[in-house]
Design brief:
- By secondary structure, this protein is mainly alpha-helical.
- It has 6 helices and 2 strands, in the order ββαααααα.
- The relative contact order is 0.13.
Length: 142
């Protein structure tokens, strides 16, 4: 029986991602945290992101040519998976396929995270507009 996995085609090559129990235990041991915590914090922590991607690529039967998270990250970005929203969605999908998150919970979590990211960028736009109106640009250092 084939294992369920996230199936992506990037640069014409197929990739299968899945966090197995072996992978989740390895992440728990590496970071001394539960796997869900590691997966959810991976978007803002490059070491965790590389570790999660490496584990998600390297499982028996995956057939992946690339099993290194650093290399795969570059492939992901080149394939259009850059940015917090898309990377968060990928991490949540991994959590679903690992059984860490219910399938009905994932869309709600994705929507809430997207709203929060959008709010943060809206505030940046407001700050930039205020700065262009004669105030100081808060993103430039003196």
């Amino acid at each position: 029986m084939a294992k369920k996995s996230i199936q992506l085609t990037l640069d014409g090559k197929p990739y299968k991602l899945r966090l197995t129990m072996r992978a989740m235990r390895a992440l728990r041991e590496q970071f001394n945290e539960e796997p869900m915590s590691v997966v959810m914090s991976a978007v803002s922590d490059v070491d965790r992101l590389c570790a999660v991607l490496s584990q998600a690529l390297d499982w028996e039967g995956s057939g992946n040519d690339v099993t290194d998270g650093e290399t795969f990250y570059d492939i992901l970005v080149d394939g259009g998976y850059g940015g917090q929203t898309k990377q968060t969605e990928l991490m949540l999908d991994l959590a679903v396929y690992a059984g860490l998150l219910d399938t009905d919970q994932a869309p709600k979590v994705k929507a809430q995270i997207k709203r929060e990211i959008d709010k943060a960028y809206d505030r940046l736009d407001e700050n930039m507009a205020a700065a262009e109106g004669g105030g100081e640009n808060p993103t430039q250092s003196a």
